[in-house]
C-alpha cells in the first residue's frame, strides 16, 4: 500500500513554512562568519576549525532540507505561486550557505593572516554583509502573511520596500568591495602570490553572500508580480 511521508503531508499544508525553516538554518550558517574572521585575526586555528565544522554541519542540514523539499513537494499546488518559483527560491537560499562553506574551506586549509591595510574595511564588509543577510531572512519570514493576503495589499508594499532596502544595501557593499580591492592592490608587492590570490577570492566570496541575499529578494518579488 502506498504511504505518504510526514514531511510530504506537511508540505501540502504549507510549503512556505519549510522555505522559512531552511532560511533560518542558512541564517545560522552565515552568523558564524564574523566570529570566524575574528578567530582569523586572533590567529586561533583551533577556533577556526571549530567554527568551520559548525558551518559545515549547518550547510549539510540546509542541503538535506532542500533535497527533502524537492523530493516531497507536490506538483499540483493550490497556491498563487508557481512550484518552480518556490524551488528556485530555496535554491537561492541554499547557495548562501554554500558560499559560507567555501569561505571555511579556504580558512581551514590555508594558514592566512589579515593584512593591516584591509582589516578595518574587511570587518566593515563582513558587518554589512551580515546586515543584508538579516534583511533577507526578515523578508522570507513575511511569506506566510503574504500568502494570507494573496500577495497584494499593504503587506505586499512592506515587503517591496524591504526588498528595495536590500538592493540599496547591496549597492553600498559593491562600493565597499571596490575600496577593499583597491587597498589590497596597494599592498600586492608585500604579499606572497598565493596569499594575494586567496584574499582576492575571499573578498569576492564575502561579496557573493550579499549578491545572493539580493537574489532571494528578487525571487520573492516575482511572487508579487504574478
Report on this model:
The structure is a single chain. The protein has 226 residues and is an all-alpha fold. The chain has one domain (6-225): Methane Monooxygenase Hydroxylase, Chain G, domain 1 (Up-down Bundle). The chain has nine helices and no strands. It is globular, with a radius of gyration of 19 Å. Mean pLDDT is 87; it is low at 1-12.
Offer a few descriptive terms.
single chain, 226 residues, mainly alpha, Methane Monooxygenase Hydroxylase, Chain G, domain 1
Q: From the 3D structure, determine the CATH topology.
A: Methane Monooxygenase Hydroxylase, Chain G, domain 1
Sum up the overall morphology in one term.
Answer: globular
- Portion of residues within helices: over 70%
Tally of separate domains: 1
Global structural class: mainly alpha
In CATH, what is the homologous superfamily?
Phosphate transport system protein phou homolog 2, domain 2
CATH architecture assignment name: Up-down Bundle
CATH class, named: Mainly Alpha
Distance between the termini: 39 Å
Counting H and I runs of at least 4 residues, what is the number of helices? 9
Biggest sheet character = none
Rg (CA only)? 19 Å
Percent of residues in beta strands: under 5%
The overall pLDDT average reads 87
Q: What's the order of the H and E elements? A: HHHHHHHHH
Amino acid at each position: 500500500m502506498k504511504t505518504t511521508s510526514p514531511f510530504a503531508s506537511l508540505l501540502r499544508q504549507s510549503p512556505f513554512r519549510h522555505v522559512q525553516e531552511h532560511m533560518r538554518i542558512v541564517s545560522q550558517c552565515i552568523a558564524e562568519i564574523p566570529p570566524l574572521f575574528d578567530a582569523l585575526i586572533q590567529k586561533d586555528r583551533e577556533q577556526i576549525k571549530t567554527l568551520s565544522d559548525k558551518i559545515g554541519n549547518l550547510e549539510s542540514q540546509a542541503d538535506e532540507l532542500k533535497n527533502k523539499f524537492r523530493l516531497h513537494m507536490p506538483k499540483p499546488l493550490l497556491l498563487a505561486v508557481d512550484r518552480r518559483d518556490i524551488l528556485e527560491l530555496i535554491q537561492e537560499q541554499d547557495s548562501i550557505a554554500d558560499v559560507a562553506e567555501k569561505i571555511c574551506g579556504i580558512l581551514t586549509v590555508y594558514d592566512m593572516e589579515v593584512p593591516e591595510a584591509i582589516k578595518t574595511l574587511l570587518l566593515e564588509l563582513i558587518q554589512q554583509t551580515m546586515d543584508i543577510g538579516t534583511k533577507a531572512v526578515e523578508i522570507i519570514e513575511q511569506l506566510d502573511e503574504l500568502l494570507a493576503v494573496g500577495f497584494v495589499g499593504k503587506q505586499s508594499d512592506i515587503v517591496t520596500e524591504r526588498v528595495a532596502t536590500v538592493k540599496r544595501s547591496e549597492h553600498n557593499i559593491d562600493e565597499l568591495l571596490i575600496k577593499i580591492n583597491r587597498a589590497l592592490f596597494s599592498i600586492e608587492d608585500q604579499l606572497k602570490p598565493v596569499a594575494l590570490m586567496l584574499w582576492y577570492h575571499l573578498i569576492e566570496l564575502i561579496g557573493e553572500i550579499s549578491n545572493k541575499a539580493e537574489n532571494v529578494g528578487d525571487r520573492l518579488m516575482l511572487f508579487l508580480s504574478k
